[in-house]
Automatic annotation (TrEMBL):
PANTHER family: BCR-ASSOCIATED PROTEIN, BAP, ENDOPLASMIC RETICULUM TRANSMEMBRANE PROTEIN
Gene3D superfamilies for this protein: 1.20.5.110
Annotated keywords: Apoptosis, Coiled coil, Endoplasmic reticulum, ER-Golgi transport, Membrane, Protein transport, Transmembrane, Transmembrane helix, Transport
Residue ranges of domain Bap31/Bap29 cytoplasmic coiled-coil in the record: 147-202
Matching InterPro entries: BAP29/BAP31, Bap31/Bap29_C
Membrane disposition: Multi-pass membrane protein
GO biological process, one term: protein localization to endoplasmic reticulum exit site
Localisation per UniProt entry: Endoplasmic reticulum membrane
UniProt-recorded name of the protein: Endoplasmic reticulum transmembrane protein
GO CC, alphabetical: endoplasmic reticulum membrane
Family recorded in the similarity comment: Belongs to the BCAP29/BCAP31 family.
UniProt function note: May play a role in anterograde transport of membrane proteins from the endoplasmic reticulum to the Golgi.
Coiled-coil annotated spans: 107-211
């Protein structure tokens, strides 16, 4: 029994040292403990722990019984003293075994939590890097769009100025056309007046010619 307990204690101490220090064996130990905690592993561990607790309680009970018998007898019996020492050693070793088992379980749990935390931090860093890269890419794209918008604005202003110049030219041409139209109307009116004057002059000449012909006719009569 004592040899088995000493073997378990030294094995647990080696296992704890393996978990504490970063060595190539730590990954293998962690994988082994992960497998132990799956399936029937927890049931077996709980059974072994319960057995140790029962044996520890039995040893403590035996120690209390021997102590009570010694007090009642008033004399220390060498046999009881040896049994007392044996039970005390076994109880101490079993308590130490249970304590080291609890330490191994907690170390394994914290190492897993630390690994998950590191993976989460790496994922967050990758996301932040991708976000920064995307932000830089968006900044360059934004700059390119800004430059393109500025070029389009200058082109629009240029086209607006050209359109305004053409509009002014069109207004000037319209005023010139209107002036020419009025001038042509004046020419037409002047032409009509001249035609009327010409008609009047012709009628007057015809009247004069007729008057000049009538006196000759009278003389002949």
């Amino acid at each position: 029994m004592l040899q088995l307990l000493y073997t378990a204690i030294f094995s647990e101490m080696i296992l704890i040292l393996t978990l504490v220090f970063k060595t190539p064996l730590r990954k293998l130990v962690i994988i082994t403990l992960d497998r132990v905690k799956r399936g029937r592993g927890p049931v077996v561990v709980s059974t072994v722990g319960a057995t140790l607790v029962v044996v520890l309680a039995s040893s403590l009970y035996s120690m209390a019984k021997i102590q009570q018998r010694t007090i009642e007898a008033g004399v220390v019996n060498p046999t009881d003293q040896v049994l007392m020492s044996k039970h005390m050693l076994e109880a101490s070793l079993m308590g130490f075994v249970l304590f080291l088992s609890l330490m191994i379980d907690r170390l394994h749990h914290y190492i897993r939590e630390l690994r998950l935390l590191r993976k989460t931090m790496e994922a967050v860093k990758k996301q932040s890097r991708s976000f920064e890269e995307g932000k830089n890419g968006n900044t360059e794209e934004h700059k390119a769009l800004t430059e393109e918008i500025a070029a389009l604005k200058s082109e629009v202003k240029k086209l607006e100025s050209e359109c305004e110049a053409k509009g002014n030219k069109a207004k000037t041409l319209e005023t010139e056309v209107e002036a020419l139209k009025k001038q042509s109307e004046g020419f037409l009116m002047e032409y009509d007046r001249l035609l009327e004057d010409n008609q009047n002059l012709r009628s007057q000449l015809q009247a004069v010619d007729q008057n000049s012909l009538h006196p000759d006719d009278k003389k002949s009569i």
